[in-house]
Amino acid sequence: MRPKLVVGNWKMNGSRANNATLLAGIVEGLGQGKAQAAVCVPAPYLQQCADTLAGSELAWGAQDVSIHASGAYTGEVAASMLSDFGCRYVIVGHSERRAYHGETDQQVAQKAVAALNAGLTPIVCVGETLDQREAGQTNVVVNKQLSAVLELLDGAAVQRIVVAYEPVWAIGTGKTATPAMAQEVHAELRSQLRARSLDAGEKVAILYGGSMKPDNAAELMAQADIDGGLIGGAALKAADFLAIINAA
Ligand code: PGA
To answer: Ligand 1 pocket, 231 CB below 6 A?
Structure first.
């Protein structure tokens, strides 16, 4: 069985003082043998994570990465720099980056490669908009987003990614996909992975994201192909985040 993984996506939230309280609360409440957990924080707070989380059960990561290794790319952060700060994960292709920064499927794929080359686990986000769902295009959209990544990786590398299915219409809106709706897309993504590499189909964690909360987490994560969650709003309160980890 695949281990469950619950990842907090803090987005552009936090301050040194608030983070200290939040991180301490999460670490204190983490039990033994439960789901794996991580927080993906704004880049300036990676040092704070490295300082406070080293040796704890809570892993950390970033929310974006450059496709370039180093050089004249003002404002960009290289994957090797994230590794330098002890990151295990980096989110790539979140719908907010696709929508507000024009990230293409190809750039997202290159980011996944950059992350893997630096020893990081990319959390590759895919998901359809409401218009696309209503037009019956959900599977076409997510298959295309994932296939751009799969095309750049060999079978062994595919096994090292995490996929997050995040329907855009469910992010930060309080509207959640029903467990059955989410499971249907997760099963589709899993068969796409399996077609690429049987081992990847079995091993790759597929997280659900989009208004996952303590009261809907258990039912979502009980679905056969839902291996955890990518949590936005509810990751900013230790009690809620812990409740979701415990529901996994
Ligand atoms: P949400 O965000 O849980 O606030 O809907 C999820 C995400 O964007 O990763």
So the answer is: yes
- In angstroms, the CA 92 to CA 78 distance is 13
Establish whether residue 209 lines the binding site of ligand 1, counting it when its CB lies within 6 angstroms of any ligand atom. yes
Question: Residue range 167-172: average pLDDT?
Answer: 94
Is the domain covering 5-247 a CATH 3.20.20.70 domain? yes
Instruction: Catalogue the active-site residues.
Output: 94, 166
**Averaged pLDDT of the chain:** 96
Mean pLDDT of 230-246: 97
**Mean pLDDT, rounded, for 200-214:** 97
Residue 19's Cβ-side half-sphere holds a number of Cα atoms within 13 Å equal to: 25
* Atom 1 of ligand 1, nearest CA residue: 232
Per-residue confidence (pLDDT) for residue 33, from 0 to 100: 62
- Read off the amino acid at residue 195: A
Task: Give the start-to-end residue ranges of the domains of the chain.
Answer: 5-247
Distance CA 69, CA 58 (A): 27
Full-prediction pTM beyond 0.85?
yes
- 211 CB near ligand 1 (under 6 Å): yes
Tell me the per-residue pLDDT of 47-72, one tens digit each, with 9 for 90 and over: 999 999 999 999 999 999 999 999 99
Phi, psi of 74 (to 5 degrees): -55, 130
**pLDDT value at position 31?**
79
Q: Which residues pair with 206 in a beta bridge?
A: 163
Q: How far is the CA of 168 from the centre of ligand 1 (A)?
A: 9
